[in-house]
Amino acid sequence: MKSDEFAEGASEWPDELSRREFLRLAGASLALAGVGACTKQPIEKIVPYVKQPEGMVPGKPLHFATATTCNGYAQGIIVTSREGRPVKIEGNPDHPASLGATTIWAQADLLGLYDPDRAQEVMRGENISTWNDFLQDVDVALAAQQSNAGAGIHILTDTIRSPTLIAQLQAVLKRFPNAKWHRWNPIGPDSINGEVVVYDFTKAKVIVALDSDFLFMHPAALRYARDFALARRVADPTSARMSRLYVAEPTPTLTGANADHRIAIAARNIRALAKELAVRISASPRSAPLPDELVTFEPWIQTAANDLVANRGASIVITGNGQPIEVHDLIAKINDQLGSVGSTIARNSAVAGSGDAGPPITDRGYNQTESLGQLVSDMKTGDVELLIILGGNPVYDSPVDFDFASALTKVKVSVHHALHANETSRLCHWLIPAAHFLESWSDAVAFDGSISIVQPLIDPLYANISSDEMIGALIERPVRSAYEIVRETWRSTNPTPHFENDWRRALSDGVFRNIDFQSVRPAELHSAEVKTAEKISAERTGRNPMFLELLFRVRGRSRN
Amino acid sequence: MSQLFSPRANVYSRVIIFGAVILVCGGGWATSEIFWSPYTTYVAVPFDQPVPFSHKHHVGDDGIDCRYCHNSVEKSRFAGMPTSETCMTCHSQIFNDAPVLAPVRESLATNMPLKWTRVHDLPDYVYFDHSIHVAKGLGCSTCHGRIDQMPITWRVNTLYMKWCLECHRAPQRFVRPQEKIYDMDWQSSRSQSVDGFQLVAQYQIDTSGRLTNCGTCHR
After folding, report:
1. Whose CB has fewer CB within 10 Å in chain B, the N or C terminal residue?
2. Cβ-count burial of A454 within 10 angstroms (0-12 exposed, 13-18 middle, 19+ buried)?
């Protein structure tokens, strides 16, 4: 037996207090606890408003539509507020990504708002400072950048999907053409294709999911789960048919648990599997024998392929973000061939999560690691004079060999804008406490491109600054409030006379504009890459049956 | 073998037995006295208020409606309290520089609310809702007494659970016609024993016993 598992003495009964003595005391406390009820009501205060806020009845809750984000994608929520305090989050039935449901993370967002460990003050090193002092510091730094078009300005962000924030960052790059905007998200890109793909699970008869947990770990999971369930519920057995779900996955997931046919397969073999599927649904005969690693899955592959072919135009093949871009392209090709694009699948590369305000931000081929590497080498040579880090914690989560921490010390003015002080904040000159999304104005795009305005339920609890105001500090004086900045984005792109009405409607419904999805037929977009994908899989190295595979799975939502 | 008890043991035992009985009864009586005394119930106890507000003047003499100041009493759990702005609608004209009203003016100027001392205060584990009681024909005076005669507000009822239940068990004894809710003079008449049941039926008050379920008030 291992006796030193616990701290010394922790597993022993201290002998001064015998067991009997302990029970006696416990009994006495129990008896006396009743006496605790013998209290009278203490004198309390009743505090009316100085001025009654418009539209509220004291004692009655109010409900506001706003949006939370799941890995950057909007999910509509309705927040209940009592006497000005948000107390409960539920789904927004009018929002396409919610339909009235919420995720566990959305439910927990309230705790983030009231978290006493949040960053509360603007900090300059160890000292409490103010936003105005910070602006003065920025002014000095920016003045030095006028001559070289902002070559010393670097901005590091997460993957961003707020149209307003993107527009602002574009404005920074326009004002300082040599400035650089780097994006780093340690758990991988969210939208690997750089285009928005929307699936309609209500119409799908056959679904093949290759390493995709679309029922749970997906920005549109709430919607997809609902749609999927709808297609599985058969009211009239004579006419309708239940959809069938085939799942191949390396780790057990909720989607796998709902599958009709599930196989457990290593993540690195998904590519071969996708390729095999592509071959079998095409008319051309197979050229090479089935690779060894797929032999055991022969029945699954054949049934799935037959089923897909038998249900042309009513199928969905989907893969997850853990898979490389080649697999995504292969899958896109399969879906094209099966004729599902336009019926069960809609694609829109125009939206690409950026809204109207800027170019797609998860652009194809953007290499985050490379970009971060570039930033680090610039920092090391002392070329970075003003570094703004929006959220995140690169000191902790960037690749170790970059040695981000020591590079950071060479930056002239470094600023971290974050909800919580972390390793990165500690090494930055300035810490600007970020506003929680329930405290600030913003906007967000849902999985299908529809836009929600994020409206605050409460004034910032501390000296919090929103991301829009933070970036505003680089381009304008005085820095407008987040409300003005967000409103201006949409007013300028909607110069209609009804804007005021549209805006009010958007705030009350929680959806600004439902993007009308014309499914775009993919041109020759994918063929080139698919070839390289084939080449890669052809170059498969020698087979080793005893691989150990290490998978990083995000069981939750990335911080945002 | 010697006697176990001395002759005096009889006396001791009597003293102890009767003493114990007296102690228990006396203790019980004292507890009950304290429990029902204004010390714990706050009945008829005047409180310190930031402004000596008089319902007697405002309601009794000037005839201002309760809802002018307690404007959510029909809509919400909470009866509502007048904002500093509400007081100033009148007091910017009358008594506009009376020293007693200084806290109100200051509140409006500094945007800091007045802090009244709660006269009626249920523990937080009890749920009470004004709107249902008003809608089902219970007048303010049934629970709050002759507010219109109070120069300073005090409590008329204990707000104990027993008090709530007395009515919840037999609402017919207290209900009144809807137009009399704000009538401070209303008294149950001789015919209440008949009218009461009629009103209970008319208001569709729940007589299934649900009103006395613990979960009605402790939810």
Report:
1. N
2. buried
